[in-house]
Each structure stands twice: as C-alpha cells, then as structure tokens.
Fold each of these.
Amino acid sequence: MEGSRLVVCSLRGAPAIVLACMALAGVVLVSCSNLQRAVVSVPTIEGATFVGNASCVDCHSNYTRIFPSSPHARIHVANAPRAEATGCESCHGPASLHVQAGGGRGRFIINPGREPQACLNCHLEVHAQFQLPHHHPVLEQRMNCVQCHDPHGADIFKASHRTAFGARASTGLARLNETCAQCHREQAKPVIYEHEALRDGCTVCHHPHGSVADKMLMQRDNNLCLRCHAQVHAINGELFIGDVPHTTFVSRGACWSAGCHTAIHGSNIDRALRH
Ligand code: HEC
Ligand code: HEC
Ligand code: HEC
Ligand code: HEC
Ligand code: HEC
Ligand code: HEC
Ligand code: HEC
C-alpha cells in the first residue's frame, strides 16, 4: 500500500433527484476544489495499472449502470494514466491485469467483502467515531459498513442491496429508518401513538456510528428533546413543556427515565409516550 492523491470531480450529470436526497440527509456538497485531499492509501496490485470505470462496463453492467450518481463515482486517482474517473478501482485496486485476464473471481482484483478497513483507509474521521465509548461494533467485526451503505448505488445512505432485508425501494428519510430496522425492529415498528420525531429519521437522536453518550444519543441530557419541545417559564415560575407543568418532573432525571417518556419510540397505550 502506498500513498496516492485523490481528486474528486463535481457531480457532473448527477440527476437532480439524487442531489435532493443528499440534501435531505444533511449532506453538504462542496465544490471540486475543496475536495482535493491526500488519501492514505488506494489499494495496489502488483504490476497492474488503473484503467478507469469505462473498462468495467462490458462485464459488470449491473454495477456500472447504478454507479454514476454515487459519490464515489467522482473519484479520480491522480496518478492514473487516463483522465477518466477511477472510482471502481479506488476500492478494488488497479484493474488492468483483471481486464486483460478476462476477469474472474480472485483474479488480479481486490474484493473488500465486509472488511471495514477498505473504507477506513479514506474515511479517517469515521474510524475515530467508531472508537467513541458507545458505538456500533464495526471494528469488533460484528457488523460492517455495507450493511448501512451501498458502495455501488446512487444512494450511499441506504443499505447495500446485497445485505438489506427485502428490496423495498423508498425515498427520503424513511429509507434511513428501514436501514436501522433491519436489526432494530422493535424501535421502528408501527404503533398507535407514534412519536413524530421518528419521521425525521433515527439519526435526529442517535449518531449512527458512535457517540460519547450512552445508547449513541446525540446529547446525553434533556437538551436532546428540548431542541424540538420548547421549555416555557410561566410568570409564577412554573416550568411548562408541551403545555404540561414539568417543574417537579425535570428534577427526576432525563425525560426518558423511569416513570416518564420511556416509550420514546412510540407507544400503544399512552399518547404521552409511556409504557
Ligand atoms: C472481461 C470481463 C471483465 C471485465 C472487463 C472486468 N471484470 Fe471484474 N470480473 C469478471 C468476472 C467474470 C468476475 C467473476 C465474478 C462474476 O462472475 O461476477 C469478476 C469479478 C470481479 C470482482 C470480484 C472479485 C472477487 O474476488 O470476488 C471485482 C471486485 C471486479 N470483478 C471488479 C472489476 C472492475 C473494477 C473492473 C473494471 C476496472 C472489472 N472488474 C472489469 C469479469 C470482468
Ligand atoms: C466505495 C468502495 C467501492 C466502490 C467505489 C466500488 N465497489 Fe465494488 N465492492 C465494494 C465492496 C465493499 C464489495 C463487497 C460487498 C459485499 O460483499 O457485500 C464490492 C463488491 C464488488 C463486486 C463483487 C460482487 C460479488 O458478487 O461478490 C464487483 C464485481 C464489484 N464490486 C464491481 C465494482 C465496479 C464495477 C465498480 C464501479 C462501477 C465498483 N465495484 C465500485 C466496494 C466498492
Ligand atoms: C479511495 C478513497 C475512498 C474509499 C476507499 C472509500 N471512500 Fe467513501 N468517499 C470518498 C470520497 C472522496 C467521498 C466524497 C467526498 C466527501 O464527501 O468527502 C466519499 C463519500 C462517501 C460517503 C458520502 C459522504 C457524504 O457526506 O456525502 C459515504 C457514506 C462513504 N463515502 C462511505 C464509504 C464506504 C462505506 C466505503 C467502503 C465500502 C468507502 N466510502 C470507501 C473516498 C473514499
Ligand atoms: C448502523 C449503520 C451504519 C454503519 C454500520 C455505518 N454507517 Fe456511515 N452513516 C450511517 C448514516 C445513517 C449516516 C448519515 C448520518 C446523517 O445523515 O446524520 C452515515 C454517514 C456516513 C458518512 C458521511 C458523514 C460523516 O460522518 O462523515 C461517511 C463517510 C460514512 N458514514 C462512512 C462509513 C464507514 C466507512 C463505515 C464503516 C467503517 C460506516 N459508515 C458504517 C450509517 C452507518
Ligand atoms: C446490521 C445490524 C444493525 C444495523 C443495520 C443497525 N444496528 Fe444498531 N446495533 C447493532 C448492534 C449489533 C448493536 C450492539 C448491541 C450490543 O452491543 O449488544 C447495536 C446497538 C445500537 C444502539 C445502542 C443500543 C444499546 O442498548 O446500547 C443504538 C441506539 C442503535 N444501535 C441504533 C441504530 C440506528 C439509529 C441504526 C440506523 C442508523 C442502527 N442502529 C442500525 C446492529 C445494527
Ligand atoms: C426522539 C429521539 C429518538 C429517536 C428519533 C429515536 N430514538 Fe432510539 N432512543 C432514544 C432514547 C432517549 C433512548 C434511550 C432510552 C433509555 O435509555 O431508556 C433510545 C434507545 C434506543 C435503543 C436502545 C434500546 C432501547 O430501546 O432502549 C435502540 C436500539 C434505539 N434507540 C434505536 C432507534 C431506532 C432504530 C430509531 C429509528 C427507528 C430510533 N432509535 C429513533 C431516542 C430516540
Ligand atoms: C426532531 C424533533 C423532535 C425531537 C428531537 C423530540 N421530539 Fe417529541 N415530538 C416531536 C413532534 C413533532 C411531536 C408531535 C407534536 C407535538 O405533540 O408537539 C412530538 C411529540 C412528543 C410527545 C407527545 C406529546 C403529546 O402529548 O401528544 C412526547 C411526550 C414527546 N414528543 C417527548 C419527547 C422526548 C422525551 C424527547 C427526547 C428524548 C423528544 N420528544 C424529542 C418532535 C420531536
């Protein structure tokens, strides 16, 4: 493995719908010039050179067809001979020998499989998130990046079609909850009294990778809830949240602690989200 520079070009020709989805996911699109960055390592294959995404079309059209609007499609490895994008090879390694050999499993090409290191080579900041005190057990090899991120498709924030339960396509933030629901059915199941916060996605309250707070919460205290539910002080000093006096309640602990809104993901018995 040796150092290599990486250039990411603008979202040329990406359909508007994709841009809209990315905006919903809170993704900020930066211009090409901002995205130049040094990459720790692009995989190498002895004797092989980069040939570009177009070389894969003949044999892997199932991937090349869906790939152009993926954020990784814009990647160009700077020392590649051609001017064209080398996104496929930034994860799979230079493919000249694979192409010459007529392809094949295990033939001069890297299949990262479920190995998170293939992604962490470039996403260093994500590596740090998975080392926070409360995190999804990815580095522990109990789960992996592609269970939540499709490396080939237009929607990187969706589970890979190879790992997702069912192939139900959906749009917007609902798909994000579906990704989580693969493993956390209990929190995503339909209920009589839903908590509308979930419509904004599980990630309004949970960091998907890791957090300093227990249960990977974005904030460890009542501020988690007060972002959306205003806390109002009446003239007599009484504290109101959602038109209900809360002065004695808030001193008992977090909003979701025992006796309070324990059914935070929705309830079948109480509108006030209690079990
Ligand atoms: C001449 C046809 C051909 C071309 C061109 C080709 N491949 Fe393949 N490749 C194959 C075949 C056949 C397999 C075996 C698996 C299969 O049938 O899907 C394969 C397998 C792979 C695998 C899985 C390897 C494994 O060990 O599991 C990867 C990754 C891959 N190719 C990437 C690429 C990339 C990236 C390109 C373009 C730079 C490319 N291939 C170009 C035919 C080709
Ligand atoms: C962001 C990294 C990344 C990029 C970019 C990428 N892939 Fe992959 N690819 C993966 C990972 C990870 C797997 C293994 C996924 C799994 O096992 O679920 C994989 C698997 C494959 C396989 C093997 C599938 C099988 O049957 O086992 C082929 C073929 C392949 N990719 C081709 C491509 C082609 C062609 C491109 C460009 C159009 C591309 N990949 C771009 C990460 C990437
Ligand atoms: C060769 C370096 C490289 C590799 C390997 C790589 N990525 Fe990326 N990834 C990038 C770049 C560059 C971008 C787009 C620029 C950006 O948003 O920072 C990106 C974008 C993303 C995004 C979207 C980020 C956003 O804010 O829009 C996700 C999610 C992502 N990658 C996940 C993965 C996963 C999962 C893997 C492994 C299967 C992987 N990446 C492998 C370089 C890489
Ligand atoms: C449990 C599901 C899950 C797993 C596992 C996961 N991610 Fe993510 N990731 C997400 C979600 C959801 C977002 C979007 C967060 C948001 O919009 O607030 C995200 C965002 C990202 C981003 C862009 C934002 C950022 O924080 O930089 C990158 C890059 C990324 N993930 C890479 C990875 C890599 C690499 C791995 C594996 C080492 C991985 N992810 C594993 C769910 C996951
Ligand atoms: C592939 C399966 C999988 C997916 C997908 C997944 N998780 Fe998890 N989640 C786990 C595992 C495994 C643990 C660790 C449980 C343990 O340590 O006992 C976990 C733990 C958690 C915890 C902490 C639970 C606790 O009791 O401390 C939260 C919160 C959580 N996940 C939220 C999410 C969210 C939000 C998403 C979607 C962005 C998501 N998960 C997607 C498997 C998954
Ligand atoms: C309004 C904020 C909020 C939203 C949105 C949210 N959660 Fe939670 N979640 C919490 C809180 C608070 C806890 C901690 C509960 C406790 O400690 O008793 C929690 C706990 C969890 C746990 C640990 C097990 C448990 O129930 O205590 C999992 C797993 C989990 N959430 C998954 C999800 C998933 C999946 C989604 C999306 C479908 C989601 N959460 C959406 C606030 C939220
Ligand atoms: C992303 C915004 C958001 C966050 C964060 C959020 N909520 Fe909500 N919550 C809503 C919306 C929207 C409603 C429905 C409208 C309403 O009743 O205010 C709601 C409704 C409720 C209700 C039902 C009110 C009633 O009587 O009908 C309770 C209880 C509640 N939330 C508690 C919490 C708690 C506790 C937290 C923190 C763990 C929290 N919420 C975090 C948006 C949010």
Note: The first strand starts at residue 2 and ends at 8.
Amino acid sequence: MAYIKVMLFYLIGLICGIITLAMAVDPTVGWMPPTLSGLVTFLFVYLAGPATSDPGYAPPRARQDEEEAAPATLPATEKTPLNSALSTNDSGRLIYQIPPIEKTANGYLLNPGTTSQLTLATDSEEIAQAVRERIDHYENGEWLEKAPLAPVLARYQAHCLEVDAYIKKHKKQFKETISSLIENSQDWEGANKTDQSYMMSEFTDKAMQSLPIRLSSDIAPLLRDVPDTKGLDEIFITNHGKEAHEIYIPYASHIEKIMQISDTDKLVIQHMKKLVNATLCLQGADIPQSVLLQQLSMTDLSELISDCNIHEKAKNKADAISLLEGAKGVMGKLVNILPLSELYYLIPPKGMEKKIRDLQMAWQYYEALAKLMKSTYSVARTNTFRLITAPEGEKLRWEVKSCDDCADCESLQLIYEHSPPQPPLHVGCQCLIFWHTAAEG
Ligand SMILES: [Zn+2]
Ligand SMILES: [Zn+2]
C-alpha cells in the first residue's frame, strides 16, 4: 500500500508540474493560474515526503553476504524455523551456522535445514561428528579450513548416500564411454604407459562431459571401481601416526615418483619434512641411486659413465643406469648434476608395498568424495543463508547464477519474480541464488 500511496502523490505532483511548465510556455492553454498550480505541486510533493521516510516503506538493503554489517534486527518474521540458525557476533556481523547433525533412518544428516542433503551412511555418531567437523569450516562467518576431510573418509571408508546415488546413475555410462574411446583409438595400442596416461586423462574429460549431470573431471575417481582397502588406513595410522596419514594422502599420486620442491613452497617442504620423520619419505642423497639416475637424460648418463672411467658402452637408458649403479664416485658426481636438496621421494607405508596401487586408487576416490561433499555443503550453506535472510512480505526478484555446461542446471531460468528458485538440482550443483528488492531493480 505504501508504494501505491507514494506513486499516486508523485503522479499528481508531476501532472501539476507539467501543467505549470506548459502554461509558462503558452499561458492560454491553462485552466489554473500558474501560481495555484505550483502550490498544488508543492503540497503533493510535501505530502509524499513523510511517506517515503516511513520505516515501513524504506527498502531494506540486500543482505546476502556475511561480510556486510548485520541489520539491527533479524528479518522481521520468524515464520521459518531456519532463522534460529542465524545470530549476530560481537562485531555485529550476521552469522549463519548450520544446525547440528541429525540421526535419520539411513545414517546421519550432516547439513539439516539446508537446501541440499548430505547423509553419511553410518550408525556411529562419533564418525558423523568427525566428518561434520571437517566439512564445516565456517567459524564466525569465516572460512577456516583446519583439517582435511579425505583422510577421515578414507579411515572410516565413509559413504555419502546422495553421492552413492550419483555414482549409481552415472558409473555405467562413464565406463562404457571410456571403453569405447579406447577401442576406437588408433594410438592406444602402440602407446607407452606415459602416453596412455595422457590419453586417459583426455578420455576421462570426454566421458565426464558426456554425462547428463556434469561435474568436473576431478570427480572421475568416484566413477571408477575402487579396490577393497578395508583396515589398511588403520594400520597406516598405527605404524606412522595420524598426522602423517593426513599429510600423505593428498600426495598419493606422487608415491614412488621424484618430486622437486623449491624452498619457496614452505608448506610442501614442511609436509615433506614431517613425512621424512615418519619414515614415509626420502630426501636427496637418501633416494635410491637408480631412481636418481632415472632423472638424467641419455646424454648426461653417457657423460657420467665416461667421468666414472667406465669403459663399457651403454645401449640404452636402462643399460646406462645398470652400469652406473653402485659404481665408485657416482653419488659425488650426481650432486653436481641434480639439485639433490630439493628432491623428495615418497615411499609406500610399512608393509603395504604390494597394496600401494590399491591404496592410491582408494585415496583418490576419497579425495574426490571429499571435494564433492565440501562443494555441495558450501553451496547449500550459501543458498540457505540467502533464502532465510530474504525480507518477508516484500516483492523480490530472484536471480540464479547456474553451473556452467550442465544441461540440467542450464534449464533453470535466470530470473524469478514470484518465488525463489530451487537449486541445487543435484549433488555438486554450484547454482547460486541472489535476491534483489524492487528498489534495487
Ligand atoms: Zn548441474
Ligand atoms: Zn547447478
């Protein structure tokens, strides 16, 4: 009603103003003396004034970001119980905390009351709580990642029901696409392992793109078969410690490969030093000589052979390495060729040398699971915050910023005039919602 009143006053004021102006140009057309018309204009504008300063009318500012200062009071009505998840901190900032985990028939709901559900398939409240602590990094409205999620998921072989449903729906098509790309490739058969791994990452991108719900390619490990590694993470923790387990997993794809890390990568160096102490990593001259020699080109190897006074000729790289391995003075010369102090080499955990490939696959699966769960949790949190802070009883214009390249999400309209849109459309959906008041346009 306040809008209509204001608009009416302004409209009449405007008409009087136009008449005044018209009469000034040609006084003969007027039906009212100019001074009277001007007075009426003044009166209407004056009367409209108090209406615009009515607090009931003043449009609230868009409050969709916790970085902004909080309003003096929370959104007017308490219609939605979700408002109980809102509070203000000491510095007056509006804080949204997802309510605590909830037991359900199938496990524990990690994010009750949000726009999407993540259910951990477990009977253990302790495990669900441990996962929740790792997935929710918001403290006082700020994102603070204190500890990684994947190691906990790996340790308890955790499953998320909503992600399982995604896997069940897409795994067959993903695997069939990969198989057909390999079958139809003319280069696959003759390619060496390195080239095949490059080709595989290209095929993986294509297979992910072919799925009806599109998620990024780093989620692909979820769609591959995962070997059974039950209990191995517990043995790892017993032998090398919990901290080493958490540090080691993100580097799983580098096991038994040389890593060159410069001094400027302070965090990685810190990780490597801890892994060296936990007997999971070798540094510099401690790395097996054959592995170090593998880093050299055939030209360097040939030079090294002649420097070490070896008179036999090497036919190929493997031959050169076997001639040099254990030869006198090789290590002393390697120091001048390789940046030994920057080289690190992860070794398999104790007693797991034969299972290391299985563990790598399992850890890649849990890394992908952690990534998907974290992004789903975070987007649901943001969208829920925007829904519950939208002003009640006000005409709002809702906007969706939909996921890129996802046919499902692109089906959403961009603007909604009557009610808020309903993303997420699937697990991992990154569609974000925004609202604008009429005054903002
Ligand atoms: Zn989508
Ligand atoms: Zn989406």
Note: The radius of gyration is 33 Å.
